[in-house]
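Batch manifest, entry 17 of 40.
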Amino acid sequence: MLAVAKSLRPSRPWMTAHTTPGLWTVSRRCLSTLAIETSCDDTSVAILEVDEPSSESPNPTKARANVVFHRTITANSSAYSGIHPLVALHSHQSVLGDLVAEALATWSRSGKSKPTFVSATRGPGMRSNLDVGLHVAKGLSLAWGIPLVGVHHMQAHALTPRLCDTMAEREEGLAMAGEDREISPAFPYLTVLASGGHTILLRSAGLVEHHILAETGDIAIGDCLDKAARAILPDEALQPPYGKALHDFAFPAGVADYKYAPPPTRGDELIRRPTNWGWSLGPPLAESKGREKTSRRMVYSFAGLLSSVERFMRIVIDDKGTAQQALRDQTRITAAERIDMAREVLRVAFEHLTSRILLYLTEETRAAKLKASLLPQTTTVVVSGGVASSPYLRHVMRAMLDVRGFKHINLIFPPPALCTDNALMIAWTGMEMYKAGYRSTLDIAPIRKWSMDSSATDGGILGVGGWTLDSSPVTAIPLTPP
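Output type: structure tokens
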């Protein structure tokens, strides 16, 4: 089934104890963090409390999160064809201080003095932008005399559904005996990170153990769709965020316009679908090179798809589908053709994103039947990052998994507000790392490129240095040991 986490809203502060007649009284304590996210063009600040059971409680229950403050301001780069690094940097420098002040004012009204620790994005991202947030976080850590946790931005996207689970509304009586303590989704699960800067499929085995199964060999899916939108959309429809503008233009009636028929086999998936306009978009990596079956390689590629869109929108295509030398008169391209192009690029891109999940699941199923693998079989796929906010992606991915025999796979998308960059995911990841005993030293620097995979050359999340491990980590929230 498709599981979309509940809509975000600040929940009521949880009581330190809950009593139900005839049941145990569960004592609880609260950890809190102020978090800062400045990796790209979004300046975001959050204060998150996690109300957790005491380890001495006779009936420990699941941790529960309360959002004290969360606000994001996006730099205005509309005058440029995409995010302008200097505009984003100046925006961080201009608004971060005010956001922190606003967060602290909200915090003080609740009678609190300082959080348990400070979290901030350390990487990957634009180094100068990251530096703005890190410096403020270090200053707060020093002023308050509390720890600092430098967070991996993509790890935060991967853990977002676990945050959503703890934020779910609880009915009275949830502290009763027998409540499941485990945060959902439990490790291991597959993670798809799809954004303007990343396209990665990982096996998330634990808090700091994420193994890359496939990643883009050229450009990210979000970059492809943003640039395709600029080639396809008329000026009046081209408004940031461009991915959303492309979807809204392609499907003005929303779900009623989808009419999507998933390819029932891998062979069907690789077939070009003809259009009324002479052009067709080929699935990426559909053609084999020599003896190598390129279509089955565990890699993503979106550059060729983007090139096809830009070429077909620029060059005349004759009735036989052959490209001519003449350039197209943009004023004569009909709205109907533009809509068809928008629908096709979205379909092809999303089917390609899903294809590597299917390749992995198919091979995993084969290995399980042959008893050739000791790994537990996948039951959950988490999809996060800015592109995951697309309702059409959710529709396509669910339909493809179902038609290929994977109806049992639990497909989890965070709510759209948490798919894009935000400080709440940084706060939650900081919380999980803090509770596992990880702290950052004050000499840490921003990291432009930073892998999540421990087998990568940089050693993954823990391989970059600047970490210390507390000898007495908090263990009330169950975590897979690193």
